[in-house]
Design a protein that fits this description.
mainly alpha, two-stranded parallel ribbon
Length: 176
């Protein structure tokens, strides 16, 4: 159960992300309304929880991609430095937490291979990040989710009093 706070706004009963069923009878709970999945609509708390989970997954992907970008830059810097060094010169490499003595000619190909693998992983993570962003936007549109600080959707000019009634009838979830 999400505590009542100014961070979340739940739509009135019968809205897109309405919860609980209120005082409706079991016999008329699904009649007259099309349902997306054939089952009952998720509650507002479930919508918010799923939205926050999707956002957290997206942040995790972005964080991992940024971490790997830093590692890729480190590899590039080391590779560039070692290219100018005598191939028979000793160098040290951390392998599984153990410092190992090698020569530059042994370490350089391994570093270049690692750099290529990291580049491939970053590309895959970026694709996953874009897909997660699309999924998140579709979920926001489907459940009419607005983030705190976002402007209200603009009503066409000239609605007058009808605009207020239409605004009151819209249902959505406000998430911080």
């Amino acid at each position: 159960m999400v505590p009542a706070s100014p961070r979340f706004r739940f739509p009135p009963e019968g809205g897109v992300a309405a919860g609980g069923g209120g005082g409706r009878k079991m016999a008329d709970s699904g009649k007259g309304r099309p349902s997306a999945g054939g089952g009952k609509a998720p509650t507002a708390e479930q919508v918010v929880a799923r939205f926050n989970r999707l956002r957290q997954e997206q942040r995790g992907l972005a964080s991992k991609a940024a971490e790997l970008e830093l590692e890729l830059n480190e590899h590039s810097l080391v590779i560039e430095t070692l290219r100018d060094v005598d191939p028979t010169r000793k160098c040290y490499r951390m392998v599984g937490g153990i410092l190992v003595e090698r020569t530059v000619k042994e370490v350089l190909p391994a570093l270049e291979s690692n750099k290529e693998q990291i580049s491939k992983i970053i590309a895959t993570l970026n694709q996953q990040l874009q897909a997660k962003g699309r999924e998140l936007n579709e979920f926001r549109e489907q459940h009419q989710i607005r983030l705190v600080g976002e402007d209200e959707p603009r009503q066409p000019p000239g609605d007058g009093a009808g605009g207020a009634a239409a605004k009151g009838g819209s249902a959505g979830v406000l998430v911080s």
